[in-house]
Structure formats: C-alpha cells, structure tokens
Amino acid sequence: MPRESLFGRLNRKVFGYLVSRFPPAPWSDLTRRTVETVQRQVPRSHAEKYELKTIWYWYPLYCLGGIAFVAFIILTITGILLGFYYIPDGTIEFTRTGDVTSAAYESMNFIMNDVPFGFMIRGLHHWGAHVMIAAVFLHMMRVYFTGAYKKPRELNWILGVILLLVTLFFGYSGYLLPANDLSRGAATIGINMAKAVPPLWLGEFQTLVFFGELDPTGFYILRMYWFHVFILPLAGTLLMVLHMALVWIQGVAEPH
User: Fold this and answer.
1) Mean pLDDT of the chain
2) Binning pLDDT at 50, 70 and 90, where does residue 42 land?
3) Of 175, 216, 170, which is closest to residue 192 (Cα–Cα)?
4) Which residues contact 62 (CB under 8 A, 6 or more apart)?
5) Which CATH class is domain 60-250?
6) Rounded distance, CA 171 to CA 130, Å?
7) pLDDT at 55 (0 to 100)
C-alpha cells in the first residue's frame, strides 16, 4: 500500500480538526425553521434531558456575555455623543493663574458643565465601562469553571481571551482621554512600563506605537483617541460577531 503524501496527511489533519469542532449542519432546514416560526424552538438542554437538579445556580451566570454586549452598545451610543464635543488635543498649556490645562481637558469640562445632560452621558459612559469590564471578566470565569472552554470550543475560548484584552485596552485608553492629573499619571506609568521591556529598541518601539512619544507631553491623547474611537471598536466588533457566531454554530455549553 503506497504511503500517503505529506500534503495528504496535513490535509486530513486540518479538515479532521475542523469537522470535529464544527460539524456540518442542515443550514437549509435551520433557515426554514427560523423563517417559519416566530421564535425558534430550542431543543431540551443537557440538564433538562437528564433532569439534573444540582447545577441550576449556574443559569443566571449565562447572562454575563449578554450583559457585556448590552454595555458595549450603551458605550457605543454614549461615546458617539461625547465625540461631538470632545477635542483630542493633549498639548499642555497654562492658564493665567499658572494651572496646567489642555484642549482635551477643557472640552471635558465643557461637556460636564455646559452641554445639556452632558454629565449624565459621561456618567453612563463611565459606569458602562465598569460594567462591561466586570461582565467580561466574570463571563470568562463562568466559562472556565463550567468547563465550556474544552473541546470543541477551544477557538472560542481563545477569541474570548483576546476580547478580554481588547476590553481592558478599551478601559485604559478611555481612562487617559480626560487629560487630567489621573490621566497623566496613568500615561506616565504606561509609558515607563512599555519602555522597560527589553531590549531597549523594542521597548522604545512599542512605546512609540502605543503612545506616540517616549515622555508624556500630551501627544499620547491623540494616539489613545485613535485606538479608543477607531481601531478598538472595529476590532472588538469583528471579534464579537465571530465569537457569537461560533456560539450559535456550536451551541451553548452546559455546565459539567
């Protein structure tokens, strides 16, 4: 019997992995049932089928992913409204009394004090960010402790880890945008941590990529604004769509 070629073995391994993780589904039947029924009937879960009574307390924790998504929608809406008035210019200036200020800081004061309901919109954005980060973190803890990261859902677990990192970067970049004392302190810590990565050229390179400067003079505001408003929302939205698509294809993992 002739030996199978390297390409043939590789092809069999790759497609075997994909079929074991994403088994073919009758898409035409699923589409027809979705269109013909007002609410798609979900088959009985593993717990219902075998009448398991000891894991009911996990069920409320299955809402954490949805809570994080709702928080993301609220953050998107409030962020768009804040963007109408925010000025991403962190150039340090001095007032007549000698206080440090910038266009970004003054725009935040304008939003809080002069824009109708501006303080409420910023408050929703502020607390929505807290809720999203907490929900994503607790969602991943639930996935881990219920064993939902195991075969065949390894890829979705990796996507979840990336989404957690994206969410944390969302929070950090937004924390820097008010250009106040806390912002400058957080920027200083971030720049020093990035520069401390060896070797020297790599630390300085990544500092310039993420902050745009090696010392916190205020230019980091514009760089973080681009990350926060353009790059992270696009990356996060694409990853969330893929994440939820895999959940729909593979189904929700019951606790075990």
Assistant:
1) 85
2) very low
3) 216
4) 142, 252
5) mainly alpha
6) 8
7) 56
